[in-house]
Amino acid sequence: MFDLERWQEIFDTIRKNKLRTFLTGLSVASGIFILVILLGFGQGMQNGIAKEFEQDAATSVWVWPGVTTIGYKGMNPGRPIQFRNENYDMSGTLFEDQIENKSPRLFVRDVFVNYGNDALAYNVQGVSHQFQFIENEFMTLGRFLNQQDGDTKAKVAIISNKINREVFQELETPIGEFLDISGIPFKIVGVYGDIGGEREEDRIYIPVSTAQQVFNGADYLNNLSYTLPPVDDFETAVAQSIKFKNELKSYLQNAHMVAPEDTSAIQVYNPMEEAKRFYSLMGGIKFFFWFVGVCTIIAGIVGVSNIMLIVVKERTREIGIRKALGAKPWSIVGMILHEAIFITAIAGFTGLILSMGLLEIVGPHVEVDYVLNPSVNFNVALTTVFVLIFAGAIAGFFPAWRAAKIHVIEALRDE
Amino acid sequence: MIQIKDLHKSYKMGKNSLHVLKGINFNVEEGELVAIMGSSGSGKSTLLNILGMLDSSDSGEYILDNVPIKDLNETKAARYRNKFLGFVFQSFNLINYKSAAENVALPLYYQKVPRKERQEKALKYLEQVGLKEWAGHLPSELSGGQKQRVAIARALAAEPKVLLADEPTGALDSKTSYEVMDLIQKINDAGNTILIVTHEPDIADMCKRIVHLKDGVIIEDKKIEQVRAEQYV
Description:
- The complex is a heterodimer.
- Chain A is of the alpha+beta class.
- Chain A has helices at residues 4-16, 18-52, 85-94, 131-135, 147-152, 161-167, 208-214, 234-255, 271-314, 316-324, 329-362, 378-404, 408-413; strands spanning 60-65, 83-84, 101-108, 113-115, 118-120, 123-127, 137-142, 156-160, 178-181, 184-194, 203-207, 220-221, 223-227, 266-269, 367-368, 371-372.
- In chain A, helix 9 (271-314) runs parallel beside helix 12.
- By secondary structure, chain B is of the alpha/beta class.
- In chain B, a hairpin with a 2-residue loop joins strand 1 (2-13) and strand 2.
- In chain B, helix 3 (100-110) crosses helix 4 (115-128) and helix 3 (100-110) packs parallel to helix 5 (144-157).
- The relative contact order of chain B is 0.19.
- Chain A binds chain B through residues 5, 8-9, 12-13, 16-17, 317-318, 320-331, 404-405, 407-409, 412, and chain B through 49, 52, 54-55, 74-75, 78-79, 81-83, 87, 89, 91, 93-95, 97-98, 102, 106-107, 109-112, 114-115, 154, 158.
- Chain B: Keywords: ATP-binding, Nucleotide-binding, Transport.
- Chain B: This is ABC transporter domain-containing protein.
- Chain B: Pfam families: ABC_tran.
- Chain B: It comes from marine sediment metagenome.
- Chain B: Residues 2-233 form the ABC transporter domain.
């Protein structure tokens, strides 16, 4: 390997057989290039999907009512279901040891929101103090709702960064300002941001108890949401959330006299379960990318061994001459392998650098849904290059070995 | 220099076995210029291949420069070839992507001679065959006679004990043939032992001794008065 004379001999050969070298190199470099790009996009899709699920807490569970579709216990189908405070309180008691955070939600409709003389077009929602952790809100100013706000039915409101920017940009801080909601003043006590971005920042939060009392909500609730305690292992988390979902659903179905097989009366959305489905789809896609990538590599290896076969065939006479001049069999094998490994390595690394470079430059600018910052693990890419070099060497060895065994006389007769 | 005793060789062709060499005995002294003659199928090429360690004999003794040549494996044969023998072929067998000088230097590479020394030696031998100015040319840019002279320079470069030439003039016209023979005679004059396989009587007459093979046995072995090739050049 470190024999300078051998290197000179190989460089001579390469310099004088440029086309052959180029073709071998091309098949190897393109194999690596395609593999890395594919793996990069596999990773990009995974990043993108992970990002899609970031906007709500991963272990959250959302429940909303619908309309019954099946008659049950003497009740007609087509009956709308209405959640009430007692459902929420009961769920909190029943599943106390399973739940981390819980919040009811009341959509406050038909209200007008004003600030000074400006009419604002934002949603108003009544929630509990724990809703912050369910929606994954972070506070940029002030505080979120607290227990006391709920207990005292305080007239306080939490606005978002977006609302702050759009409405209160001239003020140093919106905290302490009053929003007029259908004639009733609400004091702004906090500004939140949503990890999911501005599209999730169209809401003004007020305590649910206040919303029910002030805006004729009686004890109605629009939906219920929960988070479960985080666990380290994904499978356990999924199992836990499916169990909770089923138990909660059967409690609510019982309470509202809904047939167990009625899917539209009580609907439960469970990001964990969705995530599992996406992740297994993702796993499938990743596997597919790997499969295609590995096939590409195999094609590259077949290409290399094909070219090695041709090289050996083409050089049969030369090998005969070299042997007549006193080349030992191992020196022939060494020469051919050395050349093959050298070319594969150079081409492999060229493909690696080009594809990694492309991912580095283009990757961060990719803005497609479900694809985010495609990138590839450098070690994985490096390993594939070495695998390719190794496989190329193996593929090259057999023709080389056969070449070394060539009978000189026959080789010299070869035209 | 070369001692051969009772050399036998047969090839298996399916069920039949073809007995090519049927007991060859002959010796070559240092500095001889021997022509091995015979019609095709007489066994002359087989004999040369065995002498050149490109093929092995079935039985018999072969001693080259007091070294018994036996139990050859590929590696050992390669070492002996490199050390003892220089080859000149009918079809020149130069490596076509290497220049004349690089071709001449190739056996020295396998002798592990350093690169610089290889180049110097290659030029020296090219000069000896009168092709120093052509050192940088590829074989494709040379005429047949020039190619054969490069091949001879290459055979000489390894400083072998014996030079084996298989129909060295077979691919050349008669004028070029005589030029090549003139070169071979001069190399022989310098003390090199040379064996030439040929079927051309005029080429054989330019050697010092003719060994005639027929059907695997030597039917005639005579020393002759050498015809100098110079006069035809």
